[in-house]
Design brief:
Strand order of the largest sheet: 3-4-2-5-6-1-7
Number of helices: 14
Largest sheet: 7 strands, parallel
Radius of gyration: 22 Å
Shape: globular
Distance between the termini: 38 Å
CATH architecture of the largest domain: 3-Layer(aba) Sandwich
Mean pLDDT: 82
Low-confidence stretches: 394-437
CATH topology of the largest domain: Rossmann fold
């Protein structure tokens, strides 16, 4: 199947060709024809499946492509609203919107927290056709009456399950309650269809067509999973040892805490690896710069908390490392979904301390598959992984940023466990405050 067969206008096909896209992904093939009919859509798809184009293209087709050469309608209020859970995802969706809509007469803006409201208010005052926003900052504008949502014809909820995880359900309901009910199309995209998602669909959508591309918590077959057992105090040394095998390889490293991410970033940077950190305590400018530098190969290692587990669209990322395992098994899928995208091969490596064994067990049960466990020579743990032990934190499992973990206290002499499989350094083949969102 080609994009030509989906009913898109030549101006959109031209933009797709400019981007080098020739064939739609499964979610695009299933979602675009339905969305073009104007029907509400409930779509299940993981990140990395091309879902952004699955809602951006029909949105552009329905609102602008038919009159691509005509000037904008000049209205001050937006005609389409796209809600996303994080600032990074909002910026990337807006980037895709501009790329796919480069040949149509369309004005867009993105609004999110962490930056001044002034430029956002100026853009809204001038008038936009499509608005990409995070819920918290959109509520701010609604309260200041600097945004008028009475003209919304198409609403998109992107990564709806993630928005619920972040505590945005009240904000979403408030926003949806202010939108026009008549003649509004709603497109909801989510990796999972939890009860709350169904509740939103029943309350705010009209007989939505439902499609499911990927099963819940599924991972792409092109990702190789690997676990390296190591004592918690030696994790930093092992990570440096592994990254040094190819210092030019782009690597995304996940830390459980913001403090841990900063410490790890400083350690790696001082060790000669170009590194930056991205988490909720960073300013928006710092987060944007870190991501831009990572995509532009100015830095090779990006250390992130789970704020980056979804929404980071990084082409050809070969490696994701879990420095700390996530407290919730489902978050493992979202983390490693940054690699192995669009059919490319990816490697997901987890450094697992003996006390994290139960978290590993939960991940294996969720994936319904074994994960290769391989010792690195000189970094073998002092005791085996305990898959049946207690969780490594007494904190609430849904708050990974507040969980505690042992931090490195300096190098120790390596332990050699007899009889364990040895492995040489690998080379890859190929609830925060919603008002801050």
């Amino acid at each position: 199947m080609s994009f030509d067969s989906l009913g898109l206008s030549p101006v959109l096909l031209r933009a797709l060709a400019d981007q080098g896209y020739t064939a739609p992904t499964p979610i695009q093939s299933a979602a675009i024809p339905v969305a073009l009919t104007g029907r509400d859509l409930l779509a299940g798809a993981q990140t990395g499946t091309g879902k952004t184009a699955a809602f951006v293209l029909p949105l552009l087709e329905r609102l602008f492509a038919a009159n691509a050469a005509a000037p904008s309608n000049g209205k001050k209020k937006p005609r389409a609203l796209i809600l996303t859970p994080t600032r990074e995802l909002a910026a990337q969706v807006h980037e895709s919107l501009r790329a796919y809509g480069k040949h149509v007469r369309m004005f867009s803006a993105t609004i999110f927290g962490g930056v001044s409201m002034g430029p956002q208010m100026d853009a809204l005052r001038r008038g936009v056709d499509v608005l990409v926003a995070t819920p918290g900052r959109l509520i701010d504008h609604m309260e200041r009456r600097t945004v008028d949502l009475s003209g919304i014809e198409i609403l998109v909820l992107d990564e709806a399950d993630r928005m619920l995880d972040m505590g945005f359900l009240p904000a979403i309901k408030r926003i949806l309650g202010t939108l026009p009910k008549q003649n509004r199309q709603t497109l909801l995209f989510s990796a999972t269809f939890a009860d709350e998602i169904k509740q939103i669909a029943n309350q705010f959508m009209r007989d939505p067509h439902e499609i499911q591309i990927a099963a819940r918590n599924s991972v792409v077959a092109t990702i190789t999973h690997r676990v390296h057992p190591v004592d918690a105090a030696r994790k930093r040394d092992l990570l440096l040892h592994l990254l040094a095998a190819d210092s030019r390889r782009q690597t995304l490293v996940f830390s459980r805490t913001k403090h841990g991410a900063d410490k790890l970033c400083k350690f790696l940077d001082a060790s000669g690896l170009r590194t930056a950190a991205i988490h909720g305590n960073k300013s928006q400018n710092a987060r944007t710069k870190a991501l831009k530098d990572f995509k532009g190969n100015k830095i090779t290692v990006l250390v992130a908390t789970d704020i980056a587990a979804r929404g980071l669209d990084i082409d050809q990322l070969p490696l994701v490392v879990n420095f700390d395992l996530p407290m919730v098994a489902e978050d493992y899928v979202h983390r490693i979904g940054r690699t192995g995208r669009a059919g490319a091969e990816g490697l997901a490596v987890s450094l697992v301390a003996p006390e994290e064994g139960r978290l590993l067990r939960d991940i294996k049960r969720m994936l319904k598959q074994e994960i290769a466990v391989e010792n690195i020579v000189g970094y073998e743990p002092s005791r085996p992984l305990n898959l049946d032990g207690p969780r490594p934190s007494n904190g609430k499992p849904r708050n990974p940023n507040h969980a505690r973990r042992p931090h490195a206290n300096g190098p120790k002499k390596p332990h050699h466990a007899a009889g364990n499989k040895q492995h040489k350094p690998w080379r890859s083949g190929g609830q925060r405050d919603q008002r801050k969102a």
